[in-house]
Amino acid sequence: MIEKITDLNLLRFIVNNAACAIILIDKNENVIMTNLEYEKLTGYTDRYLTGMTVGDMIEKKIIHDSVSRKVMRQKQTVVLEQLSAGSSGSEYLVMVKGIPYWGQSKEIEYVICCLFDISDKRRIIEDLTASNLKYSMELLQLKKDAAANAGIVYRSPLMQTIIDKAEIIAKTDSTALILGESGTGKSMIARFLHDNSQRADNTFLTINCGAVPESLIESELFGYEKGAFTGAQPSGKQGLVELADNGTLFLDEIGDMPYDLQVKLLRLLQEKEFFRIGGTRPLKVNTRIIAATNQNLKEQIEKKRFREDLYYRLNVLNLQIPPLRERAEDIPILAETFRLKFNERYQLQKVLSHELINHLSQLQLRGNVRELENLIERLVLFSTEKVLTVNHLPGILEPEDPAPLSCTMDVEHSTYQQLRDHFERTLLTEAKIRYQTTAEIGRQLKVDQSTISRKLKKYKID
């Protein structure tokens, strides 16, 4: 058991070695203690201040406002900016965080005030002109985010609303459904929900329901017992649901999940239990499910491709991610983020011109953030000049209407089977480039996903 610290010398040693300025006030507004950082910041020694009251400090103009009084009145932590005067008479701006210490009587016994000098930062900001202030601050934040690979980058009020809502959803343990077009960043939002939840220290796993063949997705999700089917591992296998116990499982492209398998997922959501393939006893798990799709699930319900009961079970909390064309103000900062990323990856020093950024902001990027990222990568990699301009776009931008498939072949000396195989291979190769998953290819070509998977394997199309 940890004993309480009763050695005042030890306590003072700890306080004096803190990285910020500290002043301790009791419930009667008496100054009990300050530390060395406080003396460095204000010029006032602990010996001079100890025994003074908050009223004395205000009267002597050492402080102009009392954070401790606000803490006592509001009975919670208070943070504010405060103009203070040093012992030399010069004024400086500090951010003060007042933290209440509750005694055994359930009343506030002390207020610990931590001070951070922000006067230098304020002077720098005030010296910047209004025109370049916003850009300079964003660029500093952008470099920080890019270096840390923060992921979600935005400046639009629309995305700020989404992030604010996501922060609330992250604190819950409910199932969440993320909706939005392809390339809008649904998987990044899912990761954001996990990283800001109480499960952040546990496993986060992802499965793309449209990329895994129907014959494999059930075993990938729920695992199987030994001897469940021919070719099964002798010891059986844990599925992702089991591996993500106490963590989060992200089901991307949930709209492509096979209809028959949706019943098993529904049981998992309702009962927090499932059966492995070939299993006879239910397994309990504490796995949070986050799902995402670019499809209209209500339309899928009408077409009998998605279960209505599963939809309402998934749609406990939802986030609708707006397409990039509805938040064009995010494009400049996203473009800069990707430029920094690919400059570092390829050891280059390319720069985006203002003209190019303005032009990109006006593009209707149907592939959203993913398309913009791919575009910036091609610009950085294939343009020979250091400064990238609009003149570099021809040959980099994908055409609005792709050229028709070329199926040129020697018809006279080819069999019908050879001609058919050639056409199929050409068609599927082009489709694989355009679409992300086999399910999406199947929808576009009106062919079952299993057929697409088999054909891709047959023609060795990766």
Topology:
Layout: H1 8-16, E1 21-26, E2 31-34, H2 36-42, H3 46-49, H4 54-59, H5 67-74, E3 78-85, E4 91-102, E5 108-117, H6 119-127, H7 130-148, H8 157-170, E6 176-179, H9 186-195, E7 204-208, H10 214-222, H11 240-243, E8 248-252, H12 262-271, E9 273-274, E10 283-284, E11 288-293, H13 297-302, H14 308-314, E12 317-320, H15 331-346, E13 351-352, H16 354-361, H17 368-382, E14 387-388, H18 416-434, H19 438-445, H20 449-458
Parallel strand pairs: 6-11, 6-12, 7-8, 8-11, 13-14
Antiparallel strand pairs: 1-2, 1-5, 3-4, 4-5, 9-10
Helix pairs in contact: 7-15, 8-9, 12-14, 15-17, 19-20
Characterize the structure shown.
The chain has 462 residues and is of the alpha/beta class. The chain is built from 20 helices and 14 strands. A hairpin with a 5-residue loop joins β4 and β5 (108-117). It starts with 7 loop residues before the first helix and ends with a helix.
